[in-house]
Structure formats: structure tokens, C-alpha cells
């Protein structure tokens, strides 16, 4: 089975969030299951620099405003990557999506239409004897790919479109680039038109053979007005071809027994060795060296979606109870200020690093006692999965994939030994406050806390089961007459 992944980022080449981790890890799991997987990415500087053994496999005199060539290379993990080397579109420093002013690059629609066009051409015609059976598209940046394939008609591959976060929809004017070369009939409410604009995301939803999202609960939530972000009608109409499959994590990259970023590696059987990493976090984040303080961490974008504004109101109480907080993140400027102000007010108890640091995120997972994920909505979430893997107890809102991956430490779950974390609802500041209070109570019984950690670390969080579900779905889609 040949699968072409279409995405805007892929770890370890380029990463702004969880999408990159999924696109970097799932293909490797599919390869282990017998699939032949390649990924097509924009040729950002980091992507071109990170590939080895590159060869030119296609050239274009013009691709949305300039010449381009397509390179085929490999990542350090042996994943085959097509990179679109188009300097007029992708040769830019910093964020792949944002300019120096922090705003979206104004030509983002053209940049990701080019990704869709190149991916569709490989899907339709193949390249150097390699033609995919399935084109698997990820989020709005890949949304035009299914539209281009649908427009070609004939013997084309099935398309699967995965929604990682429906809040980002890739909107632009109907007049942009003359419609990107798509048929006029596509620009209707039943197509990719969305309230007088083009929606790349809606194009993926409408023109793909099948849809998936990253947790079963989120698949149901998307069909409601609360979570559907205006597209709940489209998703309800296509409910028969919408599947929820949980994300997993790379168990080699995220492994407390081998993680090179930790002061001390450990396992569930040697969970007490985690204490050395707590000292490491406290030193890194300017916290008092207090081995008895429950240490909470946050590794997140600082946005309303992630619910970190709910935490601000609970910081004084968290410190008053004797806890500490280590936070890595960036986003909303007012939220950044709120946390940095709190770090000054509660010096030694709250430490904040504005930005993102991959190594530091491993350190926090390895050393913190608990990780806070108070998202208002969360398609799947990965940081809680890393927390489970590292025995860093997730405290999560009861929504989306958080619901599907964390078993609440209620009385019944504690009695049966099945609890792995703390869930809370409603998703309000007081709801989060009660969850933190519960975590303090659980932490006070150190033997019970150790049992909770060990149960969390036993939770399956890798890709094996989910990759098998994808293979089954691919096989169904590749069977004539079953799309």
C-alpha cells in the first residue's frame, strides 16, 4: 500500500506544534506495518537543510509565481520526503506561517495552494514509477489537494483528509489567484465557498473520499455548534465518512528510560529516580529547590483555546497550597504578560520561559509531578500523552481527545487501579481550581501517587493500535466501489 502524506510540517525537520509530531511519527509506524509512505512538504530552509541524499525528481518553469523543483530526500529516521524547492514561496526565516510582524504571510493561500497542486500531481500521475494508492492530507494547508484530485477525475487515488484543529480554516478571497486553477463549479456553497470566501479546510472536507480526526470524542464534537466552528453542517452531512482515530506518540523520542535531555533516566519500576529530574526543572526554571513541593508544568501555546487564562486566576492558590509551576509557551501577549508578572510576584515558586524549546519540554515532562492541560477544546492533545509516558500526571479538561486518553482518578477508578490522571468539567477557572485541589490531595498520599504514576506509565500511548486502524481504513478506501 503506497501512501502520500501531505502536510505543512514534520518533526524533526520543521515543527510549530503537534501536527509535526504526528506527521513525523505516524508514517514510521505505518512503514513498520508494511506501508510504503512518503511525505510532501514545503521546502522551508529548515526542511532543505535537514534532508540527506536529495535528488531532483521534477522541475517546474513556474509554480504560482516562480520556478520550482521537487526534491526527494530522507530524514535521519529514514522517512522519504518530497520537498518543494520554490524560493519565492518558502525561502523565509522564522515561522513557516508568520512574517516578522507576527501576522500571517499575505501570500499563504498561494504558498499552500502550491503544496496542494504538487501533491495532487503526484497522486494523479505518479512520479518515477511511484504512485500512491491513498493521498492522506493533513489540516487546511493541504486542503486544496483533494479538490485538485477531484477536478482531474478518472483513475485517481482515494483521498483521506484529517482534521487536526478545525479552528484554523485557511480563508482567503474568492478572487485569490484566479481560483487557483480549479473549476468554477467548485466555488459554490456546496463546494469550497464559505460565506463569500474560499476555505481550504472546507475544500478538504467536501472533496475528500473520507474524513478523519484525531480522537473519537472530537469526531462527535465537531458535529455540534459548540465545536464545529461553523462547519458542523458539512460534517454532519458527511458523518458516514468521518472517523475518529486517536493520535499516538513516538515511543523512541519520548522515552524516560533513554531520554538524553534528562538528568536521570527512569522507568515505572524505578519511579523514585524521577526526583533527580525535579531538581533539574527547578534549577532550569529558577524555582526553589524544594523536593516536597508538588511541581506542576505547562507546555503549550498561550491561547484561549488552550485555556491558560483559566490558570492565571488559580496561581495564587496553587502557590499558597505549597505548589510550584514551570511553564513553557508563547502566544497571546496579554497572557504572556500575566504569567511573567506572576513569575516576578511569586519568585521561586513560578518559573516561565516564553517561547518553545524542545529539549526543555523533555526536561519538564521528566521532572514535573503533574502537567496541566485545561483546553476549552482539544482535538487530541499530545502533551498529556507525553505526561502519561513520563509518569507526569495529566490534569485535563473533559473535552475531545483529553477525554479519550486520561482516566479520571475518581473513587471507582482509584479502587480498581485504573486511574491515570484528573479530568475536570465544566471548563472554567473554578473547575480547574477544584482539579488542582484534587491533585494536591492525591499527592499528599505518596504511595497512592506512586501507584497513579505507574498506572499512567502503563497506558498504551504509541502508534501501533492507531496505525493498524489507519491501515484498515486505507485498505477500505483503496478497494474499488468502497470509498
Automatic annotation (TrEMBL):
Matching InterPro entries: Glyco_trans_1, GS/SS, Starch_synth_cat_dom
Keywords noted in UniProt: Glycogen biosynthesis, Glycosyltransferase, Transferase
Ranges of residues in domain Glycosyl transferase family: 290-420
Catalytic function, reaction form: [(1->4)-alpha-D-glucosyl](n) + ADP-alpha-D-glucose = [(1->4)-alpha-D-glucosyl](n+1) + ADP + H(+)
Pathway(s) it belongs to: Glycan biosynthesis; glycogen biosynthesis
EC number: 2.4.1.21
Residues annotated for ADP-alpha-D-glucose binding in this entry: 15
A GO molecular-function annotation: alpha-1,4-glucan glucosyltransferase (ADP-glucose donor) activity
GO cellular component: cytosol
This protein's record includes keyword Glycosyltransferase: yes
Pfam family of the protein (one): Glycos_transf_1
Enzyme superclass (EC): transferase
NCBIfam families linked: glgA (TIGR02095), PRK00654.1-2 (NF001899)
Family affiliation: Belongs to the glycosyltransferase 1 family. Bacterial/plant glycogen synthase subfamily.
Protein name as annotated: Glycogen synthase
Organism, scientific name: Methylobrevis pamukkalensis
Organismal lineage: Bacteria, Pseudomonadati, Pseudomonadota, Alphaproteobacteria, Hyphomicrobiales
Gene designation: glgA1
Amino acid at each position: 500500500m503506497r501512501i502520500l502524506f501531505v502536510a505543512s510540517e514534520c518533526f524533526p525537520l520543521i515543527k510549530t506544534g503537534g501536527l509535526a509530531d504526528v506527521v513525523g511519527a505516524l508514517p514510521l509506524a505505518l512503514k513498520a506495518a508494511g506501508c510504503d509512505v512518503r511525505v510532501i512538504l514545503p521546502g522551508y530552509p529548515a526542511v532543505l537543510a535537514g534532508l540527506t541524499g536529495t535528488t531532483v525528481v521534477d522541475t517546474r518553469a513556474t509554480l504560482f509565481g516562480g520556478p520550482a523543483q521537487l526534491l526527494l530526500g530522507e530524514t535521519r529516521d529514514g522517512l522519504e520526503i518530497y520537498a518543494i524547492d520554490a524560493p519565492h514561496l518558502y525561502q523565509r526565516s522564522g515561522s513557516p506561517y508568520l512574517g516578522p510582524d507576527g501576522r500571517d504571510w499575505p501570500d499563504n493561500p498561494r504558498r499552500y495552494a502550491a503544496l496542494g497542486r504538487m501533491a495532487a500531481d503526484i497522486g494523479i500521475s505518479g512520479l518515477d514509477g511511484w504512485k500512491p494508492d491513498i493521498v492522506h492530507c493533513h489540516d487546511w494547508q493541504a486542503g486544496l489537494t483533494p479538490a485538485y484530485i477531484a477536478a482531474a477525475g478518472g483513475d485517481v487515488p482515494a483521498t483521506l483528509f484529517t482534521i487536526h484543529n478545525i479552528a484554523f480554516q485557511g480563508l482567503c478571497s474568492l478572487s485569490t489567484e484566479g481560483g487557483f486553477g480549479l473549476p468554477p463549479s467548485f466555488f459554490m456553497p456546496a463546494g469550497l465557498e464559505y460565506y463569500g470566501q474560499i476555505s481550504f479546510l472546507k475544500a478538504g472536507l467536501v472533496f475528500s473520499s473520507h474524513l478523519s480526526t484525531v480522537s473519537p470524542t472530537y469526531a462527535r464534537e465537531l458535529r455540534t455548534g459548540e465545536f464545529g466552528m461553523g462547519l458542523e453542517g458539512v460534517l454532519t452531512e458527511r458523518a458516514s465518512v468521518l472517523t475518529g482515530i486517536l493520535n499516538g506518540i513516538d515511543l523512541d523520542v519520548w522515552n524516560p528510560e533513554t531520554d538524553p535531555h534528562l538528568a536521570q533516566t527512569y522507568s515505572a519500576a524505578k519511579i523514585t529516580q524521577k526526583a533527580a529530574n525535579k531538581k533539574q526543572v527547578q534549577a532550569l526554571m529558577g524555582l526553589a529547590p524544594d523536593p516536597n513541593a508538588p511541581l506542576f508544568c505547562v507546555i503549550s501555546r498561550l491561547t484561549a483555546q488552550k485555556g491558560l487564562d483559566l490558570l492565571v486566576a488559580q496561581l495564587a492558590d496553587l502557590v499558597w497550597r505549597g505548589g510550584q509551576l514551570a511553564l513553557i509557551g508563547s502566544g497571546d501577549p496579554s497572557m504572556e504578560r500575566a504569567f511573567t508578572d506572576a513569575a516576578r510576584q511569586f519568585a521561586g515558586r513560578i518559573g516561565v520561559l516564553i517561547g518553545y524549546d524542545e529539549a526543555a519540554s523533555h526536561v519538564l515532562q521528566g521532572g514535573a509531578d503533574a502537567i496541566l492541560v485545561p483546553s476549552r477544546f482539544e482535538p487530541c492533545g499530545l502533551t498529556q500523552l507525553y505526561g502519561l509516558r513520563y509518569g507526569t500526571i495529566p490534569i485535563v479538561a473533559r473535552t475531545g481527545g483529553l477525554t479519550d486518553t486520561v482516566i479520571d482518578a475518581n473513587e471507582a477508578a482509584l479502587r480498581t487501579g485504573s486511574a491515570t490522571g484528573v479530568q475536570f468539567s465544566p471548563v472554567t477557572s473554578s473547575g480547574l481550581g477544584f482539579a488542582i485541589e484534587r491533585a494536591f490531595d492525591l499527592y499528599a498520599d505518596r504511595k497512592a501517587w506512586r501507584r497513579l504514576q505507574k498506572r499512567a506509565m502503563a497506558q498504551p500511548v504509541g502508534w501501533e493500535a492507531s496505525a493498524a486502524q489507519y491501515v484498515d481504513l486505507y485498505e477500505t478506501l483503496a478497494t474499488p466501489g468502497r470509498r
